[in-house]
Automatic annotation (TrEMBL):
This is Zinc/iron permease. Its main location: membrane. The chain crosses the membrane at residues 52-72, 84-105, 125-150, 201-223, 258-279, 299-317, 329-352. Belongs to the ZIP transporter (TC 2.A.5) family.
Length: 353
C-alpha cells in the first residue's frame, strides 16, 4: 500500500523536471514573429504585480478546491453510502471530462495547427489527435497492468493463507469459509489499489495542464490579457481541484500521501506562473517559437488523452453502471444532471480561458 504513496511523490517530481527541461528547450529558439510587441516599463511593472497577485490567487483557489472533497469525508451527508455522494462524483467527473474536451484538446489542435509549423512535419500530420490517442492508450496500459500486478500479488498472498488453513484444519467447511473470506479481502484490496492508481494518473494529467496554463499567464506581458485570465484560471483551478480531490478522497490514502498530492496540485499553477515570469524576463523564452508551440501542443494533447480516458472509463462508467444507481430512476437522473452541471460550469469558463 505504501508503494502507491512513494510512486506518487517521485512521479510528480519527475514530471516537474521533464516539464522544465522541455520548456528550457524553447528558450532562445527560433521565433515565428520578427519581434515582440513593445511594452512600456510602466506596463511591465503593472503586469508583474498582477502576476505575483495571481500566484497567491491560484494557490488559494486550487487549495480550497482540492481540500473541499477531503474535508467532506467528515460530513455524514457526503459519505459513500449516501445518494448525494453519486451526484458529487458525477459533478467532479463532468468537470474533468470538460477540461479534457473543451479546454485542453482544442488548445492542442490550435497550437499544432499553427501557421508557424506549416513547413514542418507537425504541420503535415494531425499530431494533436494522434498524441491524445497514444496518451489514452498509454493510460489504459498503466491502469490495467498496475491493477493486474497488484491483483496477482494479493491473490498469491491469499492462496498462501488458504494453504496454511488447509494444513492446520482438516474440516472442509472450515477451509471453505476461510477461502471465501480471503477472496473477499483480496477483492476489496484490489479495488482500493485501483482507486489509488486512478487518482495518481489523473493528477499527472491535471498537473501537466496546470503548469502549462501557469506558464502562459506568467509569460504574458499584456495587462488586458492577464486580468481576465486571473479570474478565469482561479475558477478553473477550483473546479479541477474539486474533481481531483474527489478521486483522492476515494483512494483512502494515508494522510501524508493525501497531503502530498493535494499540495502538489495546489502549487503547480503558481509554479508555472513563476517559471513563466522567470523565463520571459531573463532566459529568452518565446512562446510563439516553433519549439515552444510544439512542446505545448504535445503536452496539452497528452494531458487531454489522460483526462478524457480517466473521466469516461474510471470515473463515469463504474458509477453509472452501478446497480444501486440503475435501480433508482431519480438518483440516475440526478447523477446525469450533476454531470451536465459540472461540464457546463467548466465549459462556461472556456469563454475567458
Amino acid at each position: 500500500m505504501s508503494e502507491c504513496g512513494c510512486f506518487s511523490a517521485t512521479t510528480m517530481l519527475r514530471i516537474c523536471v521533464v516539464l522544465i527541461i522541455c520548456l528550457h528547450m524553447c528558450c532562445a529558439s527560433s521565433d515565428c514573429t520578427s519581434h515582440d510587441n513593445p511594452v512600456s516599463q510602466d506596463e511591465a511593472e503593472k503586469a508583474t504585480k498582477l502576476k505575483l497577485g495571481s500566484i497567491a490567487l491560484l494557490l488559494v483557489a486550487g487549495g480550497v478546491g482540492v481540500s473541499l472533497p477531503l474535508i467532506g469525508k467528515k460530513i455524514p451527508a457526503l459519505q459513500p453510502e449516501n445518494d448525494i455522494f453519486f451526484m458529487v462524483k458525477a459533478f467532479a467527473a463532468g468537470v474533468i471530462l470538460c477540461t479534457g474536451f473543451v479546454h485542453i484538446l482544442p488548445d492542442a489542435f490550435q497550437r499544432l495547427s499553427s501557421p508557424c509549423l506549416q513547413d514542418t512535419k507537425a504541420g503535415k500530420f494531425p499530431f494533436a489527435g494522434f498524441v491524445a490517442m497514444l496518451s489514452a492508450m498509454g493510460t489504459l496500459m498503466i491502469d490495467t497492468f498496475a491493477t493486474g500486478y497488484y491483483k496477482r500479488q494479493h491473490f498469491n498472498s491469499g492462496s498462501k493463507q488458504v494453504n496454511v488453513v488447509v494444513d492446520e484444519e482438516e474440516h472442509a467447511g472450515h477451509v471453505h469459509v476461510h477461502t471465501h473470506a480471503s477472496h473477499g479481502h483480496t477483492h476489496g484490496s484490489t479495488e482500493l489499489i485501483r482507486k489509488r492508481i486512478v487518482s495518481q494518473v489523473l493528477e499527472i494529467g491535471i498537473v501537466v495542464h496546470s503548469v502549462i496554463i501557469g506558464i502562459s499567464l506568467g509569460a504574458s506581458q499584456s495587462i488586458d490579457t492577464i486580468k481576465p485570465l486571473m479570474a478565469a484560471l482561479s475558477f478553473h483551478q477550483f473546479f479541477e481541484g474539486l474533481g481531483l480531490g474527489g478521486c483522492i478522497s476515494l483512494a483512502e490514502m494515508k494522510s501524508k500521501s493525501t497531503v502530498i498530492m493535494a499540495t502538489f496540485f495546489s502549487v503547480t499553477a503558481p509554479l508555472g506562473i513563476g517559471i513563466g515570469l522567470g523565463i520571459s524576463s531573463g532566459f529568452g523564452y518565446r512562446r510563439e517559437s516553433k519549439e515552444a508551440i510544439m512542446v505545448e501542443g504535445m503536452l496539452n494533447a497528452a494531458s487531454a488523452g489522460i483526462l478524457i480516458y480517466m473521466s469516461l472509463v474510471d470515473l463515469l462508467a463504474p458509477d453509472f453502471m452501478n446497480p444501486r444507481l440503475q435501480s433508482n430512476l431519480w438518483l440516475h437522473l440526478a447523477a446525469y444532471l450533476s454531470l451536465v452541471l459540472g461540464s457546463a460550469s467548466m465549459s462556461l469558463l472556456a469563454i475567458w480561458a
